[in-house]
Amino acid sequence: MPSTEQRGSIWWRRTRRLTLLLLAIWFALTFVAIFFARELSQLVVFGWSLSFYLAAQGALLGYLALIGIYALCMRRIDSKALEERHGA
């Protein structure tokens, strides 16, 4: 059975890994919408350019999804750490 310090280290490693992964996804989501905006503006959806939809709605929905994913994953990480702490 790992010590309290080892359990804390495992928890922090999992939390950092999740945070870095979600930050990389956040950066990619933002970068794609900005970097490819000129090319995406050639595609038209319902009379508006696709870059407009990505900037106005798509990116915001992506950010909201990232927050939800973070909350769900952290709940799992925390409950697993709590189970390990109590020996369940």
Automatic annotation (TrEMBL):
Domain called Sodium symporter small subunit: residue spans: 11-80
Signal peptide coordinates: none
Keywords from the UniProt entry: Membrane, Transmembrane, Transmembrane helix
Top-level taxon: Bacteria
InterPro entries documented for this protein: Na_symporter_ssu
Transmembrane portions of the chain: 20-38, 50-73
Official protein name in the record: DUF4212 domain-containing protein
Source organism per UniProt: Noviherbaspirillum pedocola
Source organism phylogeny: Bacteria, Pseudomonadati, Pseudomonadota, Betaproteobacteria, Burkholderiales
